[in-house]
Design a protein that fits this description.
- With about 100 residues, the chain is an all-alpha fold.
- The chain has a single domain (about 5-95), classed as Up-down Bundle (Chorismate Mutase Domain, subunit A), CATH 1.20.59.10.
- It has 3 helices and no strands.
- Helix 2 (about 50-65) packs antiparallel against helix 3 (about 70-90).
- The longest helix is centred in the first third of the chain and has 38 residues, at about 5-40.
Length: about 100
């Protein structure tokens, strides 16, 4: 790799690192909202709402296409995020205030 390309790569990676910092803040906010949702659930079987999951994934696909983003990428990201939060809710259900 040429020195010029190495420098461009370094700058792009720095931008990605800044974006990651921003995403962490968004994830913190999302986690706070999920905690509030969990507090409203009375039974553990209310954690997984397949209709809601399907609706979210359909909406993400539409928004991805509209914004020229590969929907396979966003689908995978959202599915992983949803499953991570389902796991989070299950782990924290009995710890609710």
């Amino acid at each position: 790799m040429s020195p010029l390309k190495k420098e461009k790569l370094r700058k792009l990676r720095k931008e990605l690192d800044k974006l990651d910092d921003y995403l962490i803040k968004i994830i913190k906010k999302r986690t706070s909202l999920v905690e509030k949702v969990l507090a409203l659930k009375e039974r553990k079987n209310q954690i997984v709402d397949q209709k809601r999951i399907d609706l979210i994934l359909r909406n993400i696909k539409k928004k991805s296409i509209k914004n020229n983003i590969d929907p396979k990428i966003t689908n995978k990201i959202w599915k992983n995020m949803i499953h991570a939060y389902i796991d989070f809710e299950k782990r924290n259900f009995n710890k609710k205030k």
